[in-house]
UniProtKB/TrEMBL annotation:
<protein>
    <recommendedName>
        <fullName>Protein-lysine methyltransferase METTL21E-like</fullName>
    </recommendedName>
</protein>
<keyword id="KW-0808">Transferase</keyword>
<keyword id="KW-0949">S-adenosyl-L-methionine</keyword>
<dbReference type="InterPro" id="IPR029063">
    <property type="entry name" value="SAM-dependent_MTases_sf"/>
</dbReference>
<dbReference type="GO" id="GO:0008168">
    <property type="term" value="F:methyltransferase activity"/>
</dbReference>
<dbReference type="Pfam" id="PF10294">
    <property type="entry name" value="Methyltransf_16"/>
</dbReference>
<dbReference type="GO" id="GO:0032259">
    <property type="term" value="P:methylation"/>
</dbReference>
<dbReference type="InterPro" id="IPR019410">
    <property type="entry name" value="Methyltransf_16"/>
</dbReference>
<keyword id="KW-0489">Methyltransferase</keyword>
């Protein structure tokens, strides 16, 4: 066997090994979801995190009020990596919280959570967050509206709002506010802030956003799940600016 054939076999073995790891991890993540055995008057989907049942109500007429798999990927990571990413007593903000699963799991893990989204999904978001955290969490989550890039500095002045983590799941897709989202990440991310961001790849805007994101942030890939078309990233600031303004 020549060197070229040997290298090809090694590469093929790595590919198969990677596919097996991907399939196993994706299966573990998706197994956290369950459906009610009996349909009641209010449809919901169930999830198991922190050994607790979480019931999520979706609103199929609103894009942001549907739970996408990226949220499950991020929640799985938070729960299974508590030693490295300890949520207890941390200040956390979620961008584009949608149905609220990531905010709920972060709250159950002990974080002080600010859960944000647009006004049209806020009612469903608040309902899910309060329903699943009441009496279960150390801190009551704050649910509030946030328009990316618009008066973020007034809503969250750096002198009084310092977040340990910015969480985001499936906020990058073919919408017209990608620059505003980038500016919001940039404003909220201070010197010691970590960004945990799960993203489903669909079209070119996702790829170009990642390229531009790398120009402002140190970016590390934590998960790559081709079977779900999802990647999970960790990011931090490249520049070390002042923490107040």
């Amino acid at each position: 066997m020549d060197t070229q054939q040997s290298n090809a076999m090694k590469e093929d073995s790595k590919t198969k090994e990677g596919a097996a790891v991907d399939a196993e991890l994706a299966k573990a993540i998706m197994s956290r979801c369950f459906h009610p055995s009996v349909l009641g008057p209010e449809p919901w989907e169930g999830y198991i995190f922190s050994d607790l049942e979480i019931r999520i109500k979706e609103s199929t007429d609103l894009y942001g009020a549907v739970l996408w798999p990226s949220a499950m990927v991020l929640c799985h990571f938070l729960e299974t990596n508590r030693d490295e990413h300890h949520m207890m007593d941390k200040n956390v903000i979620e961008l584009g919280a949608g149905t609220g699963l990531v905010s709920i799991v972060s709250s159950l893990l002990g974080a002080k959570v600010t859960s944000t989204d647009l006004p049209d999904v806020l009612g469903n978001l608040r309902y899910n967050v309060m329903r699943n955290t009441k009496g279960r969490c150390k801190y009551i989550p704050l649910v509030t509206e946030l328009f990316w890039g618009k008066e973020v500095d007034q809503r969250f002045p750096r002198a009084t709002h310092c977040f340990d983590y910015i969480l985001a799941a499936d906020v990058v897709y073919s919408h017209p506010y990608l620059e505003e989202l980038m500016d919001t990440f940039d404003y909220l991310c201070q010197e010691n802030t970590q960004i945990l961001w799960a993203m489903r790849f669909r079209l070119d805007p996702e790829n170009s956003f990642v390229d531009r994101f790398r120009q402002r942030f140190n970016l590390e890939e934590l998960y790559n799940l081709p079977s779900l078309s999802i990647k999970l990233y960790r990011a931090s600031r490249r520049d070390k600016r002042a923490t107040t303004s």
